[in-house]
Amino acid sequence: MKLLVILFVALLVFGCNGEKVKDETPALPGGSPPSATPAPSPAPTPTPQPTSVPSSTQKTISKISLGSYFGQCAGYCITSLQITKDNVFYKKIGIPDPEARQLIPELNATIALSESEWNELILLIDIDKLENLPDTIGCPDCVDQGAQTLEVAYNSKKKSVSFSYMDKPKELVDLLTKLTEIREKMEAKLGEGTEGIIKTSE
After folding, report:
1. Neighbouring residues of 177: CB distance < 8 A, sequence distance ≥ 6
2. Mind listing the domains of the chain with CATH numbers?
3. Under a CB-based contact definition with an 8 Å cutoff, are residues 93 and 72 in contact?
4. Which residues of the chain have pLDDT under 50?
5. What is the 3-state secondary structure (H, E, C) of 112-158?
6. Which of 100, 124, 160, 185 could form a disulfide with 175 if both were Cys (CB 3.0 to 4.6 A apart)?
7. What is the pLDDT of residue 75?
């Protein structure tokens, strides 16, 4: 009897082939699988930069002009400054004094313009703002205060704005300041004695 008990215990401990039975405990329902090393996060995708050009700079500017005139004036009272990507042309037209009874010759001067100087001017022009301005601001030269006219040619179109000589539109201040500097440079090239004489109204 003792021998049968010993054999029964041996069968429980060892398998039929004499090897120890493995303890294969089944996984619990809903159990989590063994944790794996997480994959590295992908590098963030860089935000694409805008490739479209603002509408103002899409318009091709071919010429910038600034004219000035004084009605009650004798001598060189009319000026014309014309700038292209290659050069600056400046002209002064004289208004003869009836009392002097003499003709006043037209004066001209031209200088070359570098690409960087042209680009500097272009950056000061906002075509969209320019197009929204009226053709005439205020009452230029109505009380003998003089007048200026800015004209920009672009895409086979032209836009001009006239205003009082000393009353620059705020939308054009930076551009007009630069154009005035260029005009003064051309004035120096022509030399002294070419200024107009403003006549007071009687």
Report:
1. 168
2. 55-192 (3.30.1560)
3. no
4. 1-30, 49-54, 56, 58, 200-202
5. ECCHHHHHHHHCCCCHHHHHHCCCECCCCCCCCCCEEEEEEEECCEE
6. 124
7. 85
What pLDDT score does 172 carry? 96
pLDDT value, residue 72 = 83
* Nearest to 118, CA basis, from 158, 64, 191: 64
CB-side neighbour CA atoms (13 Å) of 161: 22
Contacts of 95 (CB under 8 A, 6+ apart): 73, 74, 75, 76, 77, 78, 104, 196
